[in-house]
Structure formats: structure tokens, C-alpha cells
Amino acid sequence: MATKRQFVSHTLGGGWATDFGPVAPVGADQSGRVSIPFLVEAENCFYELDGGPHKIGGSTNVNSTALESGADIRGIFDLWLMGTSGSPTQHRITHVGTTIKKDDADGTFTNLFTGLETGKNPSYMVMEDLLIMASDSTVDVPKSWDGTTAQNLAGTPPNFAFAVEHKNRAWASGDVAKPSRLYYSALLDGADWIGAGSGTIDISPDDGDRITGLISHKNELWVFKGPYHGSIHRIAGSSPTGADSFARDTFIEGLGSVNHNSIFRFRDDIGFMWSDGSVHSLKATASFGDFSAGALSAGHHEWNDQHVNLTALNTAQAVNSPRNGYVLFAVPIDGSTVPSIILMMDYRFDPVRWSTWPAYASVSLASVIDASNSNRHKMAAGTTDGFVTFIGQVARNISGNAISYKWTTPFVDYGSPIQRKYISIAALSFQPRGAGNITFGWGRDGNTMQTHSIAQGGSSTLGTFVLGTSVLGGAALANKFMELEEGGEFGAIQYQVTNSTVDDDVEVHGFSVALSSGSWSTEG
């Protein structure tokens, strides 16, 4: 028999984390508030600064027709050539099928190179207004383009797979004939690999690993090895000879990167993906070493073990969006041999918060400036069917299809698993962003999820949102109350919010429930 009623408000204090189990043993504080510490599901959402899950935006195609009969877009690069006239030019570069293509920031792509080996992982770097392109193909050689001439990279380069600029030189690796060799070019000349000032450094050769990635950070070149044993090394110095000559120091052993394209910058740090799908940073590694609990991805390693296709993880890509405060990872899961889901890591929170974005079928990722839209910084994705798309856009649809938004809390027992509770009223706090319905669900103990639909009641007024684009929605926070006539009794309860309406945005900030407490029960 219910004897006491309490109205409990809930905020969301964490993101997607499957490793914490199905239950969050939390209770209401003296003011009747509960902070849910994590979510067991968080699909197609990112987070407001108060922790509220917001539905991701839709996508718009850059090109109007599929490239290469709908082949995978394996790489995207936003190229700006400065020139000497004070009028830089923009091109978007893509690796698709057996070609490398460019557009003139107009969505019309033309061939730079044809006849390449298909299905390879590309890399890009710019130095002295020269774009240098390479891939992990053992057949194709590095290429270059200066805005006019597309050719094999001059200067007798090694057949490297990836390169970066550091200290006014091109540094490269990934040569299968010399898997532990680091190459550097002559000063200010990415096309001179044999002249004065060029050279090589061998990084622990024949140690059972190869160099898998490079990045320039804080005046040093960081060299990652993998994908089996793992190690990270630092190259200090500014020249091949002299008092400040190049010198190598080993940062850590037992951890490295799975590939070059999943190394990324964020905050004042460098992040990287390891060959088990875990994500780490240099700062956390300096503090915790290769201890998995110190990884940025510590909350979903079990999910990685169950879903990430480790044999295809060399295709993974990462890109940072400093403006939004998150990093996106394109990762192959289950039976896919190319990235098939995006994982989002929001680093504005401590610890970071994650969610999954299965709505986008993205093989490649890039940060691109859209000169046709006031030079807005946008996230671009390459699809499995030959399109370059801008993601996170105003309309909440992907090729006219609805985006399925869902988040689910763990079971909550309100600090007393032995005491029975009864739910009778619920309220959802959200900012109206559309005219469709939001579905609120609650699952009691082992019972089937019960649901109640709530009309958003939003208008079609255009407002401003954190992504810097207009979205459908009203201006005020709404609290919609629901009388749950068949709410039911429980020991522990789980909550869920969903929406799958085409063009509907959703921005939830919390929820409340009316609970009555009853007698103790030891029944399972």
C-alpha cells in the first residue's frame, strides 16, 4: 500500500556508457533531485551543456550525382591554396573508387588521378602550396597537385602511406619495405627526399610493429607504432645536424595507434585510437600509462569487444570539431569492412561523454569550411554510395528519411532496492523544436517498456542553435505533464525517450516523476 508521495526531478549527469552495468544505485537528494550518472543507450544525439540530449541534424549532399557509380568515399580533404595574389582558392579533394577528384568548392568533381588501387586509406598534407597525397597502397606512389599540375610526387620519394608537416619539412612513413623507417624531406621542399637536409630515422626496427601514424604537437613530432605491441616516440630538434639536431625519445611502450587517420587534436592534447578500438590521449597516457581505465573510451570497452571489427579498424577515421567541442569517429562494426557508424565524444565534459550516431553511413570524415554559407565550419562525411555530405544540418532528415533519436537510462532504484515504489505522473522538460511527438517510456523491473506520447507543440519559427544554423523550434522551455494511469509498481525503473519523426528536432533537458513509496519486498 502506497503511503508517501514525492515529485522527483532528474537531470542527465553522464553520456553513453555500457560498462557500468544496467543499474545506477542513486537516490534523490534533500531537494528531490536525481542525477542519472550515465546512459545505456544514446543514439543520434549530442549533449547540451546541462547534459540534455539533443537530436543530431540531417545531411545535405555536396555533389548532386554519385561519384564513380556510387563507390565508397574513402577520403575528404579541404584544400586551400594561398597563392601570391591575396585571393586563396578552395578545393575539396576526395579519394573515391580508383580516382582522386577535386572540386572548386562548387560540388562538381573532376578527376585529378585515375587508375588507382581501390579501397585504400588515403592521407593528405600541404606544404609550400603543394598538396601531397598518399595511401596505404603498395602499388600507387605518392601524388602531388599545386592547383595546376597533377603528377607523381617529384624528388624520388619513398613509397610512403602518410605524411605530415613538421618544422618546415615533410615527414613520412608507411613504406612497406621499411615499416619502421621515418623519412624527412629537405627544408621547405616536400618534393626533395634525397637532397641536402633530407634523411631518415629508424624507430625500433624489427620490433614486431610498424609506424602507423604521425602528428606534430608542441614543437615535437610524435611517432606511433602498432598495431600489435604498440609504442609512442617523440622526435625533438630542428635540423639533421648541429646543437639542435633531431633526437628520438620513447614516450611509452604497450600502447600506440591503429592507423594514421584516427590520430586527432583536441583541447591542448592529442588523441588516438588503439588496435582494440579504445581511445586514449597523450596526457592521460602520461598519467595512467596503458591502463584501460584511463582511456577516454573507458565506459564502452565491452561494446567495442562485441561490435568493433578489429580486422578492419585500420579504416577508422577521427575528426575534431572545436566549435562544437566534440570528436567524431567513423568506425567499422560487426561485419562491415569499412566504417559503418559514427561515435561522438564530447570533451566539454569531464569525464567526456559519448553517444552513437548510426544514422550516418559514413566511411570518411573531415572538417570543411563552406564558403557558400558565410565560411561556416561544417563536418563533412563521405558515404558508401558516392556522396560527400555535410552532416549536422538544419533539416532533421537524411535523404528524406527520419533520424531515429533515442536515449535510455539505466535502472534506478532510488537508493532502496527493497522498497516498492509506484509511478503515477511524469513530466518531460524540453525546448519545443517541432510539431511532432516525443515518446516517453518507462520500464518497471523486468516488464515491457510502457510509453506515453507528448506533442512538442513547437512552431516553424527559425531560431539559432549551437551548431550555428537555424532549426525548427520555439523559444521557451516546456514541461509537459503526463498522467500515467497505468504507471505501475516497481523496485527499479528505467526511462527512455524516443523520436523518429521526419524533420523533427528534439532537445530534452530533463524529466520528473511522481513516486509513492510502499512496503518492503524481498521478491525478485
Secondary structure layout plus pairing:
Blueprint (H helix, E strand, L loop, with lengths): L3 E9 L10 E2 L8 E4 L4 E3 L1 E3 L5 E3 L2 E4 L11 E9 L7 E8 L2 E4 L7 E4 L8 E6 L2 E6 L7 E3 L4 E3 L9 E5 L2 E5 L7 E4 L14 E4 L7 E8 L2 E7 L4 E6 L10 E7 L10 E3 L2 E5 L5 E3 H7 L12 H7 L9 E5 L4 E6 L9 E6 L6 E5 L4 E9 L5 E8 L4 E6 L3 E2 L2 E2 L2 E4 L2 E2 L6 E12 L6 E8 L5 E6 L6 E3 L5 E3 L5 E6 L5 E2 L2 E7 L8 E13 L4
Parallel strand pairs: 1-3, 2-37
Antiparallel strand pairs: 1-46, 4-36, 5-6, 7-33, 8-9, 9-10, 10-11, 12-13, 13-14, 14-15, 16-17, 17-18, 18-19, 20-21, 21-22, 22-23, 24-25, 25-26, 27-28, 28-29, 29-30, 31-32, 32-33, 34-35, 36-45, 38-43, 38-44, 38-46, 39-40, 39-45, 41-42
In the CATH classification, which architecture of the domain at 4-57 and 405-520 applies?
Sandwich
Oligomer: single chain
CATH fold-level label of the domain at 4-57 and 405-520: Jelly Rolls
CATH class of the domain at 4-57 and 405-520: Mainly Beta
Biggest pleated sheet: 6 strands, mixed
Structural class comes to mainly beta
N- to C-terminal separation? 18 Å
Low-confidence stretches: 459-474
Q: What is the residue-averaged pLDDT? A: 93
Strand fraction equals over 45%
The radius of gyration computed from the alpha-carbon positions, rounded to a whole number of angstroms, is 26 Å
User: What overall form do the CA principal axes indicate?
Assistant: elongated
Structure, briefly:
By secondary structure, the protein is mostly beta strands.
Description:
The protein is mainly β. The protein has a domain at 4-57 and 405-520: Jelly Rolls (Sandwich). Helices cover 3% and strands 46% of the residues. Strands 1, 3, 38, 43, 44 and 46 form a 6-stranded mixed sheet that branches.
